[in-house]
Automatic annotation (TrEMBL):
It comes from Hohenbuehelia grisea. Residues 53-190 form the DUF6593 domain. This is DUF6593 domain-containing protein. It comes from the Eukaryota. InterPro entries: DUF6593.
Length: 197
């Protein structure tokens, strides 16, 4: 009876597994220590070094490597320019009463509201890239990029915001579908605080 402690087998601290060095004690009393769930095959891109906001920042990728630079109004007033890690411009937003967006090789120049039209219920924004349809859906603290269609939605990416940065989590599937550059531009559109319709 003493050698068959179910709590000891589960890794909870007790006399039977004293040397296991597991997680710190639970803040919930007798319950095991909470570890937030992680998403497998996810890369995080962090919009940081705001100057003063997400429309002027650096985007760091895995291992804190700079992946993108986002510059607004310099040297061209009324524009946000997106540069890749080699300093090459790949996208822009022209801020007017109805902002225009272009992403080279993916999205021809068009109104941002046409790229991301609101659904009839105004609960999500749709997006079509090539033949594929997607949806940007706000839920809790995230704005999630999901597959659209009759089947179950699959989350491909999600945006979250803190006081000091904006995070874009991308699945490896989303990156292989060529959605990284597009998601970076959409993140700025949705986090800019400006009307895009």
């Amino acid at each position: 009876m003493y050698g068959n402690n179910p709590y000891g087998q589960a890794g909870w601290p007790n006399a039977a597994n004293r040397g296991m060095g597991g997680p710190p004690p639970s803040i919930f009393g007798a319950l095991p220590y909470y570890t937030p769930p992680t998403r497998a095959n996810t890369l995080i891109f962090q919009f940081t070094s705001f100057n003063p906001d997400v429309m002027n920042c650096t985007v760091l990728g895995p291992k804190a490597q700079p992946y993108y630079r986002i510059v607004t109004d310099a040297p061209t007033p009324g524009f946000t320019v997106f540069q890749n890690g080699t300093g090459k411009n790949f996208a822009f937003i022209e801020w007017r009463s109805h902002p225009q967006v272009e992403i080279r090789g993916a999205v021809h120049k068009q109104r941002a509201g046409d790229l991301l039209p609101l659904s009839a219920s105004r609960s999500l924004r749709r997006m079509q890239i090539g033949e594929r349809q997607y949806e940007w859906i706000p839920n809790e603290q995230y704005i999630s990029l999901c597959t659209a269609g009759s089947g179950a939605r699959e989350v491909l990416a999600r945006i979250s915001r803190s006081q000091t940065c904006v995070n874009l989590e991308m699945t490896s599937q989303a990156i292989s579908l060529g959605l990284l550059d597009i998601a970076v531009v959409v993140t700025v559109l949705l986090q800019s605080g400006r009307s895009i319709d």
